[in-house]
Amino acid sequence: MTATIIDGKAFAASVREKVAAQVSRLKADHGITPGLAVVLVGEDPASEVYVRNKGKQTVEVGMNSYEHKLPAETSEGELLELIARLNADPAVHGILVQLPLPKHLNEDLVINSIDPAKDVDGFHISNVGLLATGQKSMVPCTPLGCLMMLRDHHGALSGLNAVVVGRSNIVGKPMAQLLLRDSCTVTVAHSRTKDIEEICRRADILVAAVGRPEMIKGDWVKPGATVIDVGINRIPAPEKGEGKHRLVGDVDFASAAEVAGAITPVPGGVGPMTIACLLANTLTACARANNLPEPE
Ligand code: NDP
């Protein structure tokens, strides 16, 4: 293997440490404790794990965590009422509605009912527009984590060719916006892209956010490129025993690591950075709400 492994787990721990130090200063100097409310509707097992981890890490950095678990049959009206209450609650600085929502709930409507200043996921239409026009906004956590790792590894990103595979509102599109903001030349590839392998081979920075296990092979990667693998896919692992699974990314790690200059592993790459950035966003929202200088 030739690539440097970008250790997202260690990086995320350092981000959380920084957030924790700033939280304790906020408490000591201003008597303010940042608060994050997480809303989970229904019983999706993966979402339950995410919500539990978010709550645990929120408390670990010294913030208040408010968990709202609602039954799957919750009506849109009931959910909107809860969000209105959280919007009005001065102890709540960040609100996150865990996606996906059950089918009978309109996700766009629900997300856009969150006060944009408390929208720590950065999915509200106002934050999407602010990011696209280069204004101060809440930035979606997963692409923000990817950007932080890229800046840490490369320093300035200006002039680099970046290819983002995937165009979801949650990852691909905001990732492309952030890279553009950092003056990369950005190409967004998706399921209809022609000659995708050739396009990927031109990338100095290759971000994979597809949801297809190990789709991107080593021969799609430009020698020396930095590869950020957002994908989290559970695949059967009979070698670990009957019915066992393991996590892999959207990149075929073994072959890509032979060619890339640097690469994020799965697990232990982008994943841990996402929650760390959620906590950083909550701290930022809290500082803004109290007219205090923004944390760096
Ligand atoms: P979506 O399913 O919303 O989007 C997937 C994107 O990949 C779409 O734009 C789709 O194109 C594109 N795509 C699908 N098949 C192909 C193909 N064969 N070739 C090229 N492009 C393709 O997924 P998300 O963006 O929400 O998530 C992507 C991955 O990242 C998933 O594995 C998810 O689990 C993971 N994830 C990880 C997070 C983390 O914290 N690490 C957070 C969020 C997601 P089209 O638009 O044309 O359909």
From TrEMBL:
Keywords, alphabetical: Amino-acid biosynthesis, Histidine biosynthesis, Hydrolase, Methionine biosynthesis, Multifunctional enzyme, NADP, One-carbon metabolism, Oxidoreductase, Purine biosynthesis
List the PROSITE patterns hit by this protein, alphabetically. Answer: THF_DHG_CYH_1, THF_DHG_CYH_2
Entry EC no(s) = 1.5.1.5, 3.5.4.9
Name the positions where NADP(+) binds: 166-168, 232
Q: What pathway annotation does it carry?
A: One-carbon metabolism; tetrahydrofolate interconversion
Q: What one GO molecular function would you report for this record?
A: methylenetetrahydrofolate dehydrogenase (NADP+) activity
Q: Does the keyword Amino-acid biosynthesis apply?
A: yes
* Superkingdom of origin organism: Bacteria
- Offer one Pfam family short name for this entry: THF_DHG_CYH_C
Catalytic reaction list: (6R)-5,10-methenyltetrahydrofolate + H2O = (6R)-10-formyltetrahydrofolate + H(+); (6R)-5,10-methylene-5,6,7,8-tetrahydrofolate + NADP(+) = (6R)-5,10-methenyltetrahydrofolate + NADPH
Listed InterPro entries: Aminoacid_DH-like_N_sf (IPR046346), NAD(P)-bd_dom_sf (IPR036291), THF_DH/CycHdrlase (IPR000672), THF_DH/CycHdrlase_cat_dom (IPR020630), THF_DH/CycHdrlase_CS (IPR020867), THF_DH/CycHdrlase_NAD-bd_dom (IPR020631)
By its UniProt entry, which SUPFAM superfamilies does this protein fall under?
Aminoacid dehydrogenase-like, N-terminal domain (SSF53223), NAD(P)-binding Rossmann-fold domains (SSF51735)
Tell me where in this chain the Tetrahydrofolate dehydrogenase/cyclohydrolase NAD(P)-binding domain is found: 140-288
Query: Start and end of every Tetrahydrofolate dehydrogenase/cyclohydrolase catalytic domain?
Result: 6-121
The record's listing under Gene3D superfamilies reads: Leucine Dehydrogenase, chain A, domain 1 (3.40.50.10860), NAD(P)-binding Rossmann-like Domain (3.40.50.720)
Which HAMAP family did the record assign? THF_DHG_CYH (MF_01576)
Q: What does this protein do?
A: Catalyzes the oxidation of 5,10-methylenetetrahydrofolate to 5,10-methenyltetrahydrofolate and then the hydrolysis of 5,10-methenyltetrahydrofolate to 10-formyltetrahydrofolate.
Subunit structure comment from the entry: Homodimer.
Q: Which family does it belong to?
A: Belongs to the tetrahydrofolate dehydrogenase/cyclohydrolase family.
Q: What is this protein called?
A: Bifunctional protein FolD
Species source reads Thioclava litoralis
Q: What gene is this protein a product of?
A: folD
